[in-house]
């Protein structure tokens, strides 16, 4: 009798555990990911990949929380819990979030290529072809008129080659005015009229309720391909720039070291703040990285670099944490580095 009760209790417990495993909570859990070598992902025509050292991107793993992952994260120093609205924008679906992340990676790759080629004095041209819509805010004027993936090319007949130009043209209008937006959808050009409303995050400013990303087309000599598969976000910008540059020049700028890092990069070569750097320090240490580049943010308090130092001290890593404000800072450090 007791064995039967025990068996039934066990079965019920297993069923409850399985159900709870599939019931998600309104949170995301992030944890240290991996450090991945970039040479297999980047291919410059005629570039040398047989260097003794390597440049590596670092990742953070993220997933929706269930009861078990939430509880485990509560007692882990390097697993973090975030409410959904701190990861996804308001009314943004998983599909929209993933789309946005992948396009941010595409933008990051193109910027990395431009900066690296310019530094190596190679031919590169970055041409903007309009702006992609990667989110549409519910209840705002663009809802039902524009969709994720539309490429906006004109406002009132005037070209909008970048997201900055688009925002400038909208900002010059008044709330209540109507604009004609020309866009491409499935290779077909269309035009729609949209009445400006108050920007949801900027009181008194006009907006239509979309988020944008510039659509760039890049040409280079020598040719280059970068395969990022399903890696999303802009945070690998600096490391992509270093790998591309290393394949463009004759010398091995890694000097035989395993070098990881993080930080978005803009067209000026500035290294920008990212999220999850403490978890990336753990991932890099687990991979046996020698040197880690961290955004210094021009010495701002609580910079990524300062956060990285705290994590590095906590896990007692031997990895060297190096602050950088620009791509040139990273190159200058590597030029002074002795061969391993």
From TrEMBL:
PANTHER family: ATP DEPENDENT LON PROTEASE FAMILY MEMBER. Residues 230-337 form the Lon proteolytic domain. It comes from Sutcliffiella tianshenii. The active site is at residues 235, 280. Residues 101-170 form the PDZ domain. Keywords: Hydrolase, Membrane, Protease, Serine protease, Transmembrane, Transmembrane helix. This is endopeptidase La. InterPro entries: Lon_proteolytic, Lon_Prtase, PDZ, PDZ_sf, Ribosomal_Su5_D2-typ_SF, Ribsml_uS5_D2-typ_fold_subgr. The chain crosses the membrane at residues 9-29.
